[in-house]
Design a protein that fits this description.
about 10% strand; tRNA processing; globular; binds adenosine-5'-triphosphate; Cytoplasmic tRNA 2-thiolation protein 1; nucleotidyltransferase activity; Rossmann fold; 12 helices; 10 strands; alpha/beta; 6-stranded mixed beta sheet; ATP binding; single chain
């Protein structure tokens, strides 16, 4: 990776002067967040990449010849994913055709900057890039939408539109799969949120490593078991700037995230435990689940006559932007508010802005 991108970052937590517990030869350079092992940098890279390779192999995420679009936001997760996946593809001969797929939501001062990172990655990693914009797809940028609806509910639009935009971009690229940079922390947060909301439909699928096999294009999460803290350490010398969306507020998801971070501090395994709990939930057979159909207007998957994106778009075009915002029972992608997207309020002021994110595939 190119060491000279974007500016300084915090160094990873230092280990003492002990030897690496893996190789027993080099000095330990860091304490691995997931296991608290004291290891050297070389062993950290090896174990980090090997675990992702194991996840890919054990879950049969790909087959030789697959065309795979990497959802590339320019943020740390998807940037590391693009790099690691292209490395593993060469090293282990997955025989994948990889592409970068970016959605330009039209957020001045955020996405325009992060897309510059993706454009650099296109060159650095030699992966073809496709950018698809809300403006072209829907006639609205997020800047326009925020002007119409304000900050409070804008994440609902962004999450619903992005999900569909990724599918549409993937269809243009004729790929077999989309991969995203959702990590173990994201998944644990989503398990908790779905419990807190009583959203059984989402709870039952939010821990799946591959989703949407009944939809247009399956999506998978190779970082399902990868800790965010390790994703941050991994490219220490390579990817330096973390982009934060200027529109996403400090909402409900942020509290789930803080809670998980507190648990992780006391017991690093907590993240994996929450994911495991989510995986082991069994939905009662008497619980009514939404039935999947297609939108009458655009043909996209929907459990209602019109998909959520069409309902939201209708509201915007009719000058009634609040139409369709809020929880609509059974509506596909019907997030009740910004929480599903607004993430990562940290304690420091600089990171109080959350980020986009919709893990509901
Ligand atoms: N604008 C976008 N274009 C393409 N893919 C996206 C976009 N936004 C998000 N994604 C995909 O969804 C994943 C989760 O997005 P989220 O907004 O939660 O950010 P994140 O967890 O901080 O990830 P990242 O650091 O990659 O932005 C990303 O890793 C990426 O794969």
């Amino acid at each position: 990776m190119d060491p000279a991108v974007d500016g300084p970052r915090q160094p990873p937590a230092r280990a003492g002067s002990r030897l690496c517990t893996r190789c027993g030869e080099r000095k330990a350079a860091l304490k691995r967040p997931k296991t608290l092992e004291q290891i050297c940098r070389e062993c950290f890279y090896i174990v980090f990449e090997d675990e992702i390779h194991q996840t890919i192999v054990e879950n049969n995420l790909f087959k030789p010849g697959d065309r795979v679009a990497i959802g590339a936001s320019g943020g740390k997760d998807s940037t590391v994913l693009a790099y690691v996946l292209s490395e593993l593809n060469h090293r282990h001969k997955y025989c994948l055709d990889l592409f970068l797929l970016s959605v330009d939501e039209g957020i001045t001062g955020y996405r325009d900057d992060s897309l510059e990172t993706v454009k650099r990655n296109e060159i650095q990693y030699g992966l073809p890039l496709k950018i698809i914009s809300y403006k072209d797809l829907y006639g609205w940028t997020m800047d326009d939408i925020v002007k119409a609806i304000g900050l409070k509910n804008n994440c609902t639009f962004c999450g619903v539109f992005r999900r569909q935009a990724l599918d549409r971009g993937a269809a243009l690229l004729k790929v077999d799969k989309i991969v995203t940079g959702h990590n173990a922390d994201d998944i644990a947060e989503t398990v908790l949120l779905n419990i807190l909301r009583g959203d059984i439909a989402r709870l039952s699928r939010c821990t799946f490593i591959t989703t949407g096999e009944d939809g247009p294009i399956p999506r998978c999460k190779p970082f399902k078991y990868t800790y965010e803290k390790e994703i941050v350490i991994y490219p220490y010398y390579a990817i330096s700037h973390i982009f934060s969306c200027i529109y996403s507020p400090n909402a409900y998801r942020g509290f789930a995230r803080e809670f998980i971070k507190d648990l992780e501090r006391m017991r690093p395994r907590a993240i994996l435990d929450i994911i495991k709990s989510g995986e082991n939930f069994r939905i009662s057979t008497t619980t009514r689940m939404p039935e999947q159909g297609t939108c009458e207007r655009c043909g996209y998957i929907s459990s209602q006559k019109l998909c959520k994106a069409c309902v939201l778009l209708d509201g915007l075009n009719r000058g009634l932007p609040k139409l369709g915002v809020g929880r609509t029972k059974g509506v596909a992608g019907g997030d009740s508010d910004c929480e599903q997207q607004a993430k990562r309020p940290e304690r420091s002021r600089s990171s109080l802005q959350g980020k986009h994110g919709n893990i509901d595939f």
